[in-house]
Amino acid sequence: MLDNIELHHLKAFRQIYKLKNITAASEKLNTSQQALSVKLKKMRLEFCDQLFVKSGHGVVPTPYAKKIFPFVEAALDSIVQIPLPVDADPQLVEKVITISATDFLQQVVVTKLIAKLSVSAPGIKLILINIESSELVRKFSAGEIDLALTSQGYVPDGLLTDDLFVEQYRCVTSNEKLFQTSPVSLVDLTQHAFVVTNPSVPAFKGSADDWLRRKGYEREVAVSSSSFSMTKEIVKQTNYLAFLPSRLLPESGLIELQLESSPPGFQSVLAYHPSQAEDPVFAHIRNTIIDIVNDEVAQ
């Protein structure tokens, strides 16, 4: 039994089990629905069970599928953790790496990483996804992501981190006539509504709110945005203000305000699972990211 079950069958089983939908699973696996259906048919024959049955617009696992899922998950997790030789040449490695990152760090770090890896490790393919801080540990453990680029405060216990840089916030507007004096006082600043950027959890509160509260001020938040890219566009088309990372500026259509006091910066980090600490391929990618940051600082 199971002599004809291969790794790609187990990966297909896991995605169908998690997503409860053949279409969604095929998209996640970057394969066609027809190819995935063929794999499912093969697994049904090998396991002597239907494994998944139709329900509404998706599928649900059979009792047997529920029983074997922990074993499939453990087998795939073990395979992911098999180390490569310590002298593995990045030029010769063929591997797909999934990176979860904020849109800010995708713009200032990941784009440069892609350019460098295209030369130093051309066989590495990258999948980029937006950060989901609350899901990081689970996704790392399940092998769904390999590296994360985010802020220190959003990294849960159980992951290792390398510090990248401390980023400073700058306050921006699109209306040059909004303030008549410079530097702008916090009293005047908090008379205007803001856009806050919360890539992980939608909320009408940003990192500057605690800082303002300690100063004795409250601000009105009109929009909670999922990305800094969207925040910039909203500010350009309204009289709202926003705090943006300094590395995203200057930006056409936005004016940086000089404030009497600015909020504290945040530590950007590279996070990864402990099982990857000694892996030479991941070490090469981490070192490349560190080099990118160091080169920027040196300029």
Structure keywords:
3 domains, Arc Repressor Mutant, subunit A, five-stranded mixed β-sheet, alpha/beta, D-Maltodextrin-Binding Protein, domain 2, single chain, 10 helices, 21% strand, 299 residues
Q: What is the CATH top level name of the largest domain?
A: Alpha Beta
CATH topology of the largest domain: D-Maltodextrin-Binding Protein, domain 2
Number of strands: 12
Strands of the widest sheet, in order across it, are 4-3-5-12-6
Corresponding CATH architecture of the largest domain: 3-Layer(aba) Sandwich
The largest pleated sheet is described as: 5 strands, mixed
Percentage of residues in strands: 15-25%
Name the CATH homologous superfamily of the largest domain. Answer: Periplasmic binding protein-like II
Oligomeric state of the chains? single chain
Helix-strand category: alpha/beta
Shape: elongated
GO molecular function, one term: DNA binding
Family: Belongs to the LysR transcriptional regulatory family.
Protein name: LysR family transcriptional regulator
Keywords: DNA-binding, Transcription, Transcription regulation
Topology:
Elements: H1 7-19, H2 22-28, H3 33-47, E1 52-55, E2 58-61, H4 63-80, E3 95-101, H5 103-120, E4 124-130, H6 136-141, E5 147-151, E6 160-167, E7 169-173, H7 186-189, E8 194-197, H8 207-214, E9 221-225, H9 228-236, E10 241-245, E11 255-256, E12 266-272, H10 280-298
Helix pairs in contact: 1-2, 1-3, 1-4, 2-3, 5-10
Quick rundown:
It comes from Reinekea thalattae. The chain has helices at 7-19, 22-28, 33-47, 63-80, 103-120, 136-141, 186-189, 207-214, 228-236, 280-298, and strands at residues 52-55, 58-61, 95-101, 124-130, 147-151, 160-167, 169-173, 194-197, 221-225, 241-245, 255-256, 266-272. Helix 1 (7-19) packs across helix 2 (22-28) and helix 1 crosses helix 4 (63-80).
